[in-house]
Amino acid sequence: MIPQVCAAMMGTIAFSLLFGVPRKYYIWCGLIGGAGWAVYVLASGYVSGAGASFAATVVVIFLSRAAAVVNRCPVTIFLIS
């Protein structure tokens, strides 16, 4: 599972580059993307694919909001990537 989470982090950072996210937010975007994938993988063992996607989405939304408050920037920076 750890290689999958690392790949999700790198993929999220790559999309951050593609969408023009400022460089100082790359780590935040990667951590949020990795956390979302980790929750999806863990939840898929207990619930259906739709339930696991919902759980991961909720985690990504809350982490994006928290990162936006901490960094005083728009939440869409973290949600889009």
Mean pLDDT: 95
Number of separate helices: 4
Please state the overall shape, judged from the principal axes of the Cα atoms.
globular
Helix amount: over 70%
Distance between the termini: 21 Å
List the quaternary state of the chains.
single chain
Structural class comes to mainly alpha
Radius of gyration: 12 Å
Order of helices and strands: HHHH
Q: Low-confidence stretches at least 5 residues in length (pLDDT < 50)? A: none
Major sheet description: none
Record field, number of beta strands: 0
Task: Assess the beta-strand content as a share of residues.
Answer: under 5%
Please explain how this structure is put together:
With 81 residues, the chain is an all-alpha fold. It is built from four helices and no strands. It has helices spanning 2-18, 26-44, 49-71, 76-80. α1 (2-18) packs across α2 (26-44) and α2 packs antiparallel against α3. The mean pLDDT is 95.
Task: Give the SSE layout.
Layout: H1 2-18, H2 26-44, H3 49-71, H4 76-80
Helix pairs in contact: 1-2, 2-3
Key features of this structure:
globular, 79% helix, mainly alpha, 81 residues, 4 helices, single chain
In short:
With 81 residues, the chain is mainly α. The chain is built from four helices and no strands. The two termini are 21 Å apart.
